[in-house]
Amino acid sequence: MSAGVYSCYARRYARLVTMPTTAHTLTDVAASESTLRRFLHGLPGVDAVGLEARAASLGTRSIKTTAKAYAIDLAISMVDLTTLEGADTPGKVRALGAKAVRPDPTDRTAPATAAVCVYPDMVATAKEAVAGSSVKVASVATAFPAGRAALSVKLADVRDAVAAGADEIDMVIDRGAFLAGNYMKVYDEIVAVKEACGASARLKVIFETGELSTYDNIRRASWLGMIAGADFIKTSTGKVAVNATPANTLLMLEAVRDFRAQTGVQVGVKPAGGIRTTKDAVKFLVLVNETAGEDWLDNHWFRFGASSLLNDLLMQRQKLATGRYSGPDYVTVD
Amino acid sequence: MSDRLSVFKTYKLYVGGKFPRSESGRVYEVTDSKGKWLANAPLSSRKDARDAVVAARKAFGGWSGATAYNRGQILYRIAEMLEGRRAQFVHEVADAEGLSKSKATEQVDAAIDRWVWYAGWTDKIAQVVGGGNPVAGPYFNLSSPEPTGVVTVLAPQKSSFLGLVSVLAPVIATGNTAIVIASEKSPLPALSLGEVLATSDLPGGVVNVLSGRTAEIATPLAAHQDVNAIDLAGAGTDDGLAKELEIAAADNLKRVLRPQPVDDWSATPGIDRMTAFLETKTVWHPTGSLGASGSGY
Fold first, then answer.
1. pTM surpassing 0.90?
2. Among A82, A329, B15, B79, which is least packed, fewest CB within 10 Å?
3. Which residue of A has its CA nearest to B224?
């Protein structure tokens, strides 16, 4: 086949090729509003039916016995134990910290969770509560959950949290700007927040996928976040009706996989909100393994944003250990 | 003239207000007393039992928190709905227990009356087993009976309907929620009772009916940490099973009602089956004039 014929095919099927292929593209895409838009709108469209079917079929895997025990312990170690309520008290945050460090006081073989996730003003309390353990403190910032504040306010929010000792910052993107097509504004904000995080804190970027309306938008937001320097991309705040679903998480896992293939940079994924049972969590782990691969099966690269999930994981763990079904009387009431 | 094709009924479980098939997909053949095939019933697995516990636990808050008067109304409603389907139950009981039509009718009538009896007890039991206690101090001291929680009931094996109602009604009358394991050999009246309960204003999950091998379902339920009590009426013919279940139940200090020999289920039941699954809560209230601090001290 001659080169001329090939390039003709390449042009015709350009939009079917999974991703733009040169590393060169990514350094330049954020050069201006128009290059950024051209890049994001040049991403291939998402096959919604195929995506959902793929997510559903991966959810049917049967994970039993030793594989289940492994999955439960892995999932526990990936939980970002979260409390984001207006009614959070220092006492509640301390209790949460204690639980994160030692999730099952009756069984010392249970692993610690990855992190506790709190509002910025609770970071210092949380930091004290998990001192001396492997548990990180994550803080939501940038006018969470709406993200409707001036950039200076958002950055002050981030700096406060980092100064109080937060190891991870969960920021929300400006969905209004994103939906209005003002991608550069979203990009600049992420870059600014990343800078405010400094070298010490990892940045998780929350897209609030339930508000982005389409899978195409979720794919665009994922690439936008990763190009802007996110260490993690996160589905949602947990404060809206639609939170993490297997389909939108699968889409984001594909994005981080393709991003690493193209740039060599690995980015983590954090589905948050709506994951309440062990069964759900195991389905997500299957998605991770089958999509991004084993490299992501580690709490440095994959997290669950959850609160009630941990109790269900612990009850399932007790069931596996003792053979008896456990109950809510044997885990804490959060 | 050609015969009409028969329409067979698919008997299903009653869990959480819904009628699922067994999670395992299994069924077993149910025969009448002469060995003639009647229908297939679901052969429940331990996972059905687990789901039933979740449903019962979820329903407990609402049911135990309902007023006793309201519970009484609903229990009476069950009697009303049964009355409307009397013929069906007479037929099923006659088949299941090999009774004549008149004997079966007696059983069904007694079962309907049993619901009415317990409907009357819901708002009276507290006055009989609770009340004010005399104390030597400036306090009121009150004891009130509280439901235990989620109760597993092994329905009697022989008396498939009257026996079932006689062990189930007292459990839910006082505000407990129940998981019933139907008679292994004749589960059909119990499964049909589920249909009655579903249309009697009884909140879903208050009663969950499972059919299958009693030993297979009862074992995980006896060991289940989220079940608060177990009534072993249906383990009566098998001493080994009753003992085994009681040992498994000891682990989370379940209340256990050992199998009691019952010759005649139609006799007046008394209140023992209600008090078996009640706990007594005692509270102290200061009396007298209140000081500046707002207390009587």
1. no
2. A329
3. A325
